[in-house]
Design brief:
By secondary structure, the protein is mostly helical. Helix content is 66%, strand content 8%. It is built from six helices and three strands, in the order H-E-H-H-E-E-H-H-H. The protein has a three-stranded antiparallel sheet with strand order 1-3-2. The longest helix has 35 residues.
Length: 157
């Protein structure tokens, strides 16, 4: 996450690269795809779908950064980091630290009510074109006031 809404810059974040790095770090201990998904949600509040996690695991495996440790019931594969993967993490240690810091901040954001806020914005985005001029004006004032209050809280005033 070299740049994202949590980090400041408005460039498009490299989310997939960040996820790969964090997932690779989680695989210091053998785990299967659903286990990684559960860890990501528990540690960072990030809910990944199977359609996201399994292509990342396949990519990490093709790159030689992880390998299949064993196959369990119903062909469930358990993955583990390789020596090459550990070396990769060592070379990208600062990026990993920053990614984990931002992901922990994201989880805290969610715990403080960010999940409700996200849902409200989803509703707003789906219906914003239906709003009249008065409603849009109210939202504009609300957003400005909210931004101002957030900054005051952060500054401790």
């Amino acid at each position: 996450m070299s740049s994202d809404i949590l980090g400041g810059s408005m460039e498009r974040p490299n989310v997939r690269g960040t996820l790969k790095l964090v997932i690779l770090d989680l695989l210091r201990e053998p785990n299967h795809g659903y286990g990684v998904m559960a860890e990501m949600e528990g540690l960072y509040g990030v809910k990944l779908s199977a359609g996201t996690i399994y292509p990342i695991l396949a990519s990490l495996r093709r790159s030689g950064l992880i390998e299949v440790a064993e196959k369990g019931k119903r062909e469930r594969k358990t993955y583990v980091i390789t020596k090459k993967g550990l070396e990769y993490l060592e070379r990208h240690n600062e990026e990993l630290k920053e990614a984990k810091r931002k992901m922990k901040a994201y989880k805290l954001f969610l715990e403080l009510g960010g999940e409700e806020l996200k849902e409200a914005f989803k509703e707003l985005f789906s219906r914003i074109e239906e709003l009249d001029k008065g409603q849009k004006g109210e939202l504009e004032e609300l957003f400005k006031d909210c931004a101002r209050q957030i900054r005051l809280i952060i500054l401790g005033e």
